[in-house]
Amino acid sequence: MVKRTWLEFVNPELIDLFPLQFVNCDRIQQHDVLYIFDEVGSGKTITSGLIALDYIEQNHKDVLIITTKALSEGEHQGQFLGDWYQKLPFIHMGYSHHVHIINNNYSHIEKLAGKAFGLIIIDEAHLFLTDKTKKRIALEKLVAEKVVFLTATPIKSNKYDLQTYINIAKSMTQKDIQNNWIQNIETIGKEKNALICSSFDITSPVTRYFKDTIQSLQISEFHKTTIKRHETIIHEVGIKYEDSKTTQQQKAEQTVEFLESRLKEQHDARFVIFTRFIEKEARVLRQALEDANFMEFRAETTGNSFAIVSGSNNYELADYSNKTKESILPTVLVVSYQIAEQGVNLPGYNHVINYHIPAFPSAIEQRYGRIDRLSKSGKQYEAIYNCFILTTNFYDSNNSNFYTAISISLNNLLKFIPSRNTLLSRKTLTSYLSEASVLQKQRELFTDALKCQEQIANLYFSLKTDEVTKDDSNTTYQLLFSLYEQVEDFEFNDEPHNIDRFKKALEDVLSTFDVLSEKGTRLAEELLKKYDVAAETAIWDNIFYRSTIDLHENLSDLNAIKEAAAFIRESDAYAEYRNRFERELAPNYRFNQYKKALDYFFYKQFDNNQLSYVFPVAVNQSYQKVVFDCQEIIKELAVKMGQKLTEADMQIILTSINRWAPKLPLFVFFREFERLVGNISRTNEEILRGHDDISNRLCTRKNYTGNVFIKAICQLHNIQTPAYPAIQNEVRGMSYEELTKQFILIKSNHVDKSNNIFGAVITTSKYFKLLYHFSRKEVCSFGKRMDSGRNNGSVYHSIFANIENIKTQMVNIIYQSSIPEEMKVHFKKNYYKEIPKEMIEQVSESSLLDEVNEYNRLSRNLIDFDNQQSTIRNYMSMFMHFVFSEYPNHRNKHAQRYWVNKYDMKLPPNNYHYYSKDYWTIHIIGELFGVKLNSDHVVHSSVQKIDTVTLKILD
The dihedral of CA 639, 643, 646, 650: what is its sign? Predict the structure, then answer.
């Protein structure tokens, strides 16, 4: 396995890392294309996030995600990226700028034609199966080094759909993509342990795992929750023609009665109702729900409630997505199949109500997957249900769609890849076989409807203008519309023969409606014999596949946990990989074991204004040295956090703290603050001072409006991810006057042994220090070198940053426990100077000798940068830029920005000696007043024509 720094940033409290998902990070290194065909709800979004995170770290190239509109718009650019950014450390590691997302409308895709991406992830990839559509053509014009296809339903009609993914990948990568994996995933002639869902092969580019298999192969630290999937429920609605109510009203009222009966059996049940028309069907459902005393949902609503998602904006579903059983949610959520059928996570519900029924089993599986999720947090329902609303005594295209889906499932889908059964049961199969004459009649009705050119034209133009009729009385029109629902990506335009193409698309759909084939009928009969009444649950919750080709094409089945997972667990390949996987994750678990206690310690130091513990490199220390000196304090604070740290724990912490500290929540929060502070001083304005080299990272305005320090520090409570409430609430609670006091010099009397006052001790607030730390010259600066002309400067901010980077490496080496004490003493007396040869000669251990030699190499590099620093004539840091509009040698009261003159940011004009004891205060004074430390660590200044000020360093 390659080195993966990002693993230590992953929080196990937010995400489970499963071996069957994680292995795809290794697969993408071996293959140009991956095909992730895992079950709906099995975590393909997170799988793709792991792949992308690892790919970015290894390659530093951009990743493009193509997903549905519902998942690509809204907060964090939609739910897809929201899941990535909430659960994986893209933002923490600064990788979010490498990630791009668009929805799968062709107009968005074609804008990126020819642009090269490192990795392209195609979510809901089955939506691109239809040939010669605009979105398909646009997709094949994209350029990528690697491609990942995500779909739980890779086959729409037959196995030739699988070749389509290969053809798309060939166009995008311009590489010869192999197709031998298609044969490998077919089930005919294979034993159970050889099926793709029961095998572990790191060299395979395709996966077809089920969520129970993935979760049962978790590592020991995690606890598995098993969800019981109950058999399909069919609820029949009887339509009475003599009733004064419309058929839609009767259907809606009887559906609500069914919901009420389910609530009597399970009081905490919740329902997602999939409709076809939001305005027509949902409006009638609303009335039926209100008549049954369901209240429109509000956060404070008690009792049964409902909500209708109309699709009027991209944020509606976000209120109900990724919530759990414990969340406050409406009892009934009504959505259209176009909005919520794919990609949306609704684990807070346990019933899918198919008010509208699609004709393809893949769509039914997608819907069921909205509630059947692989979830890390929150309480889940123990039982979930798939329900279908069928009508009697009335023609309803939903009935024919239901039986067509059963037929396709029997005749095609299960033939090629193992599939979770979300549809077949004794009741559905019995109903399917008993409806032969009715189904044949409905097929004849479809055929007759296709002969009516007038209604085809009516439907075509109503769809083109997005004005579909709501008249149920026109049966021919409704039949044609039912066929159109199964047409994918038809493009409406003004070409004269487009109506003919539209009719051909409808005819192609009808050709797939082989409702009662001889093979399907016999297979249904065989299933009813095989799964008798006593074994009803087995037919529902198992995985089905075809193992042999005989007269009846018998189906076989296996259990996702007891068989598929067991076969994988027993394989040598998986055992070897699992051991490597656990070794790689070990540092991650150790870090998260101690993270809360360590984070609390550093927060307390910041809160006490002890920044030398928070940013120790600035004072020639390391985090390891800080922890070593404060072990007892850390243990005491850990007890307050409910954790007892032993000496063995402290040794583990000491070994890793230099690597762990930047990953603690406090420091991740501070890095986001650093970014926001930088944004305050950045602009696209043209440089006006005549210095062509001045860094465009800094604003060139002569004046900032208002107190810029206050504006900067207020960025703390603008940080959303990651948030740090203890700090944010403190800043948010300050009045403007209190904020102003954060940016003054805090003075107290300095007395001698006889209590005689002879000066003042100067310090600054923790927030003033924090602002300075992230705006000092080591972060961003610009200026001139000695050899530059009057009007020409040189950007050299990297010199200061490089110096600090080298010092960081050196202190991390010198304070290791293995370094001899005499070398540490040498360091304290001769900061960053080479370790003498005679000390090195006493080192015999090779690894220690390597560390010491590296230290000396860095010391020599530091001399080179110090020499470069000596060529600097003057500079302006971001911090100075907040205060002054000119270079230091022009600094006077006229150079101060307008807002500064309103505030007392001066030392009093007297001959007092001023004393300070911390790095940040000393350098804040230095940059505010243009003073420098001399070799005696004493600061002298006669800037701004005030009396000489002497600043001494307190021991």
Answer: negative
